[in-house]
What does this fold into?
Amino acid sequence: MFTPFVVALALSAASSTTTKSASTAVSSAHVSSASTAPSATSDSSLPVPTVPYASDDLNDSYLDQFQNEIPEPIRGTNGAKLLGPQNVALDRENPDFLASPSTDNGAVSNVKWPFSLSHNRVQDGGWGRQQNVHSMPIATAMAGVNMRLKAGGIRELHWHVTAEWAYVLEGSCRISVVNADGQNYDADVYPGDLWYFPAGIPHTIQGLNDVADGCEFLLVFDDGEFSEDSTFSVTDWMAHVPKEVLSKNFKVNASAFDHIPDRQLWMLPSAVPTGTAEGGAVKSPQGVSTFPYSFAASKANSTKVAGGTVKVVDSRTFEISKTIAMAEVSVEVGGIRELHWHPTQPEWSYFMRVSQGNARITVFAASANARTFDYQAGDIGYVPPSFGHYVENIGNTTLKFLEIFNADKYEDISLNQWLALTPPDVVKAHLQLSDDTIGKLQKVKPVVVGSGLL
It folds into this structure.
């Protein structure tokens, strides 16, 4: 079952084999940056602008250029060569920081964090590294963890004060959950699959070996203050309960607890489970959970659009996922995730493995504040609610990334669709677009725009 949004995407793909964003049409037409009186329909009689026209500088990416030469902070006639020390590798990864586009202006908080800069907690059984407000202060609504479990490795029995959403990156793992009604749920998950554990629900994760040596996955929590180092663990709790109380609680001799750990394990090695998740599950008198805690998103079809694909999974398809919604997006070489914004929820983005391209994003924060950021595999992005942005594929391979939201449903506003569904005379009064350009605006969201012109 697909959402109305996904149905609209399919209509968009059918309506046009190639798409061009409104902003591209604007730059090629020397657009005015301020309101003027409504124009006549003829393109030859544009009114005198009240302010100068916006620059026609294309502000192309320097990513490829900087790979073949020493990067310099020069764009056009502006800037000058570096004379002091330089981190060439970082400058090559961030060309729009070193030689920023002329459209950048004012101040925008940092909206990029590479997991490669996060401290990695390495233990016998796997590792985990995190991002929260301490590494990217603007990201107040969500935090992320990148975790790896070897085959048999266990993320110990634990729970959180926040909900946990996961996307399996590689390999496979087994999840086990028990809810407040005493119902349990066990499942095996694979690359592209999801799970969701509501706040306070205890669970565990174990690496399998049927497709790889364990698994690697992305976790997203619905609170930017979340810390993986501050979870509630069964070993930590029981180590801090008097054994006399443990004896009373479980109705066994206190000596039964002589070998419990004296501290939190967090992650531990173990034997690889055999058989199926269902076959290994304990039979609960209360039965199996009526809501599945995992979703086989890898088996759900993506919607093809001009320039890429989109797959949306939110509470309309994964019912228990009440605080996290996702769009899995691919953008072909030279294409862009169109100019858009999300009305009420921030976007937490994750860029996929190395073979999945490079990205450029300009974040518009209103009041002439805009800044451009570059992203590689393993990077996290964050865009606050209503901030306009796009995601451009500036690499040489297909770009794949996740858009993740602290919301039950996915929503976005398309600049192209907004202009197309606004009376043409109003659009002309603002932007002085020609009839031909207005005729090419898309009344159905393009979502992803391919390279080339209409």
Remarks:
- The chain has two domains: 4-59+301-449, 119-297.
- The longest strand covers residues 164-171.
- Residues 1-44 have pLDDT under 50 and may be disordered.
